[in-house]
Every structure is written in C-alpha cells, then in structure tokens.
Amino acid sequence: MERLRDRKRARGDREIQAIDWSETGGSITLRIRDALLDDPVALDTNDRGPIITVADFFGRRLVSYQLADVGFSCAGVPLESSGVVQRGGSMPIDGTPWLLSGANVN
Fold first, then answer.
1. pTM higher than 0.90 for the full model?
2. Helix, strand, coil percentages in the chain from 3-state DSSP, rounded to 5
C-alpha cells in the first residue's frame, strides 16, 4: 500500500479540465477542483445531458457533476447561477477504479 501512496504524491494535485480545440489551438474552458475528490483518473460524459462521471482512484468511488441546466421534454433542473458546477453525489465501490464507461448496451 505504501507504493500506491507514493504514486498519489507523484501525480500531484489534480483538477478536471475541459478543453476546446480549434484550428489555431486549444484552450481550457472549465476547471473543476473538488476538495472531496482524492485522485481523478478517468472521466465519462453522459450522452443525454451535461453530466460527467469521474473515477476517483484513491477515493474508491465514482463522482458525478452537473455542468449546466438539464432539460427534459417536460421539465428542467436548473443550476442556481450560470457557470456553477454542482456535485451530484458519489458512489463508493470496492477496489480502485482506473477506467469507466457509460456505454449503452441495449
């Protein structure tokens, strides 16, 4: 277990970044720093709304964030102000997640 802790220190402080690319280069458009997120190593985006799920390796959990308003055919769940990211909650799991996928296999 000591080797795992050393790796965490080697990766340093992490943040989640969204990057937009154009013909002239890229720019960071969003940064998420969550004190409750220990070690984000993978991210999956939701196909139906502005939701991301993050694999937290040392936190041994999956954490979701709402990035913008979520619209449905009959209702919406608005954010209180523009540009605010809401933490949707977390789901503890056994082991240390290193990859995740929200692929729909219907």
1. no
2. 10, 40, 50
- Report the DSSP beta bridge partners of residue 45: 52
In percent, how much of the chain has pLDDT > 70? 72
pLDDT in tens, 45-69: 887 778 899 999 989 999 999 887 7
Taken in order 16, 92, 97, 49, the sign of the CA dihedral is negative
Q: Parallel, antiparallel, or unpaired: how do β-strands 16-22 and 76-77 relate?
A: unpaired
**Would you list the DSSP string of 45-102?**
E-SSSSEEEEEETTTTEEEEEE-S-EE-SS-EE--SSTT--EEEEEEE-SS-------
Structure tokens that stand for 3 in this block: 């080797």
Are the beta carbons of 46 and 53 closer than 8 angstroms? yes
The answer to whether the CB of 39 falls within 8 A of the CB of 8 is yes
